[in-house]
Amino acid sequence: RVKASGVSSYQFANTQVAVDARSEYALISELRSAVEQEQMELVYMPQIALEDGAISGAEALLRWRHPRLGLLAPAMFIELAERNQLLKPIGEWVCQQVVKDAHALNAQGKDTVLSFNLSASQMDDAGLVDRLRLLIEESELPAGSLRIELKEDTLLHHVAEIENLLHRLHQLGVGLTIDNFGAGACAVETLTRLPIDLLKIDQRLLRDTENDPAKRSLASTMIAVAQIMGKEVVAEGIETQGQADFLTGRHCHHAQGFYYYRPMVFETFTRILH
Ligand code: C2E
Ligand code: MG
Ligand code: MG
């Protein structure tokens, strides 16, 4: 883990790197050893309970500190990892790290929930639930202090299998969030059947809500749909006071975004919880 704290060390380096065939090939081979070489890092984006403005949790976001290219965002490598069957060890590292961090918070008596992201291919993994159960048991962590985020698109294929997996995760006691709600094409009917606790409204739906009445109506409707489904609602990608005020007026439960906090290293997150 890097000692540097603060935001500046987490600005991405050269994200404009052209990923031509050759450099893609190089990236794949470097990805193979990235976990082992301890190049993966997590940053945490705080989530705010809008009712009282307190920090209710944080979302773990993956970064790859590449030896030549600098700090890489998931857009640069998650899909590549997925296509080359390399996401499993990375995902396992993420789970372990989040459980470890959640355990540390728990030991300090902090009542916060840490969320982490899983991609579609990780939902194929038969051992996922068992590994997670083992990690939780070993760390004696209340399962409710962990939450998994799944993109809405994940539910478009193999719904029956995923439904089964979600029920097993739910039985384990971890929270479940549908990420990017409203951006995918998943049937609302499907979502009502699943043991989901939270819907995270996609940031594109919330853009310009302070200026554009049509966008405001659409966003209000999406929040209302989530509420009618009996789910808690998180808004993401909030960048302005206007957007924040809009959400409070809509009785949205939680929010995250650059307006509140940028992603930060775990040590900084622990500090701001005080
Ligand atoms: P996501 O889960 O929807 O995460 C939200 C993304 O939006 C993050 O980008 C975050 O930095 C960014 N964001 C949050 N608030 C704001 C804001 O106010 N304004 C703007 N412009 N952006 C904001 P990031 O970290 O690059 O992650 C991108 C995606 O990569 C994530 O989308 C998630 O789907 C995926 N991802 C991240 N970490 C992991 C991981 O550990 N495993 C897997 N499988 N996927 C991950
Ligand atoms: Mg997410
Ligand atoms: Mg999202």
Automatic annotation (TrEMBL):
Transmembrane segments: none annotated. Residues 24-274 form the EAL domain. This is EAL domain-containing protein. It comes from Corallincola luteus.
